[in-house]
Amino acid sequence: MNTESCADACAKCHQVCLQTAMQHCLKMGGEHVAPDHFRLMLDCAQICQTSSNLQLSGSAFSKTYCALCAEVCEACAQSCEALDNMQECLDACRNCAKSCIEMSTH
User: Fold this and answer.
1) Which domain holds residue 99?
2) Residue 1: its pLDDT value, please?
3) 35: pLDDT confidence band, cut at 50, 70 and 90?
4) Fewer beta carbons below 10 Å: N end or C end of the chain?
5) Residue 69's CATH number
6) What span, in angstroms and rounded, lies between the C-alpha atoms of 52 and 32?
7) Cα gap 5→98, rounded to integer Å
8) Backbone φ/ψ region at 85: left (φ over 0), alpha (ψ -120 to 50), beta
């Protein structure tokens, strides 16, 4: 796993989480906009964007931040798994978590 591919996975997860929250979840309503789930999706989008930025800038904090990003992505994936039509977000979160775990441990 190199920095560029992990940064790409983070950028993709940011895009998918934000787009899914704003276009799918708001439209679906109900459990899709439950405060804990919706907040987690927005948190995930934000942390992924920052993680990507830190990696691309060569920040000394990127590995530490990647570990936290992986934790948030996995929590978001678990939340998405419990809802209908959330596969794209679930996959993006799991892919990003995997990439960030690899980056944070190397």
Assistant:
1) 3-105
2) 57
3) very high
4) C
5) 1.20.1270.360
6) 26
7) 11
8) left
